[in-house]
Each structure stands twice: as C-alpha cells, then as structure tokens.
Amino acid sequence: MMLLTLSSYAxxxxxxxxxxxxxxxxxxxxxxxxxxxRDFMELKGVSFLWRAIMYGWLSMVCLAIxxxxxxxxxx
Length: 75
Known about the structure:
Radius of gyration: 14 Å
Number of helices: 3
Order of helices and strands: HHH
Largest sheet: none
Distance between the termini: 34 Å
Number of strands: 0
Structural class: mainly alpha
C-alpha cells in the first residue's frame, strides 16, 4: 500500500501528466481501494451483497473519473 502511495506521489513530483498518467493513477487508486475495502473495512468475510455494493461503488467512481478526464482531454 505504501509503494502505491509513493508511486502516485512520484508521478506528481516528476511532472508526469496526460492520459497515460491518469489511467495509471486511477488503477493505483482502484488497487488501494480494494485493499481498504477488503482489509481495513474487513469485508472479505461478509455476504456477497455487501462486497458487490462496495466494489461496485469503487469501480463506478474510478471509471467515472477516468472517462470524464479522457472526455475533457479530447475537447
């Protein structure tokens, strides 16, 4: 988790930008979100419905951010 955070920080510090950087950052955020949902929130042992709600929400937010950025970048 710390390596994912440091990689996001490094991308910003070294001035990486553009669509590829955003996709990498969204994938990093999605991966960190999975770790948080599964381990910190301790949802690995609960019913499928709760996991589907949480993972679905995470997927929708990350997908919306990526799509809206790519639409904005193409205008």
